Write the structure tokens for this entry.
Amino acid sequence: MSARRRRTRTAPARLVERRIGLLFAVFLVLLGGATLRTGYLLAFKGQGLRRLAATQQVEKVVEPARRGTITDRHGRDLAVSEQAATIYATPFLVKDPVSAARRLAPLPGKSADRLAASLSYRRSGFPYLARKVNLRRAARVRKLSIARIGIMDDERRYYPEGTLASQLLGTVGIDNNGLSGIELDLEKRLGGSDGEQRIVRDARGDPVSIRQIKSQRSGKDLRLTIDSTIQAQVENVLSGLGATYRPKGATALVMDPNNGDILAMANWPLVNANQVENAPPWARANRAIGFTYEPGSTFKSITVAGALEEGLVNPGSTFEVGPQIQVADRVINEAHGTGGIFTVAQILARSSNVGAVKVGLELGATHVDRWVRRFGFGQSTGVPLPGESQGIVPKVQDYSGSSMGNLPIGQGLAVTPIQMADAYAAIANGGMLLKPKLVHDGAPPRGRRVISGLTARRLQRMLEGVLGPDGTAPEAAVPGYNIAGKTGTAEKAEKGGYSQTRFVASFIGFAPARGAKLLVAVMVDEPQGGHSGGEVAAPAFEKIASFALPYLGIAPK
């Protein structure tokens, strides 16, 4: 009886033992599976998982440096950095992405669908929902109190004068780096250095550790040589010219020829610097430094300068000028009239093609090449702007038979408006080729002598004749002032020849003619309804000079 009881007691015990053993076996299987799964994840996906965990727990926050302010020569703000905000999220902690997106949608300037997509992507760490938003909009987002939607300080670039000098100033990108213009070229000076923080957050997204990795360093302010008042007037004149002649583009430069200061660098069409993305790329280009063209008759002054300096001619030297001249296989026609006996001074005043070619032939190929390069053509001026073209100047060994019929009258080479303005500044100031200045840094002018004072004075007197009754630009005259200058009407090259319908019209002048204190250069690309430098560009020069001379306190002379 007792043995039977012992047997009945052991049966349940064995059952319990079996169940415990079974549970233990299941536990071992699960533990083994978990171990294998962990091993698999560590071996094959460990790096990705660690990266994902880090993005959800560790954040590097950039503290944008204050970008330097750009002002004109009088301290008037042209480019400033204003406070803004960046809106970001922690998606893996946003409970209802669709609802949050609907509430946010009107504010960051994105659709609810785009915001919902960003907020639903749980594998992202701390994505930006909107950048560079104004403080009013950021305050409205903050007022919504949506969990795990954050706001951090930022800056954005603002141009108080809108279109004023926009192609010169350039643009700044989303990360506050210069993208074009002087913003790009002087990025190291203006940009400063961003700071950086490392923020570690807990599972709820709250910061538990903030470490400064890199300290912020603000950019330096920049004072330009530009005079905003003159710049605005020049842009106004170009706008009127654009409305009248509908050109492909136009540019104008105003300089102090005695120190190289650029007082205005204007382009048409105008572009709003705060909405530059709305303008086509060709309109954003700074033609003053990047547009290359054959200068035409404005280049005749360089030919004459070389011949004067070499002692081959003087202002009274005479040449028999016929209706045309043949050089190798090219026939060059006289620009105005049928010719006659012209002095060198009359050749410049009348803009004689045949006369200028004859002066160039007196110089010869080697000396023509020397004087072209001596005046700075074929190399950049060094102005602090990206994209400055060097122009195109052929090597003397590459001259063709007709090159000496082309180069003396400004064909067969390409220049930029700023190169032409700089060369004429050397004539105006007594013979010094100065480096153009855009930054008002107090440094003395830098340059080199290219012609003697005597040659410069002779050219100044001869260029006065251009505005006389027998000259090509009486329209450039400013009452009370003696003006010296030169017109250019350059046919554009096409298909191995020159167009009879597409021109570049230009005028470069300075005042007073002797002891010059102001230089103005105007270039118009493919004007319609008129094409000569005297008709299109000279009147624009007159409008600019008539304003700038009294504004700068330059007395009539």
About this structure: Confidence is low (pLDDT under 50) at residues 52-56. The radius of gyration is 36 Å. Residues 329 and 522 are 33 Å apart (CA to CA).
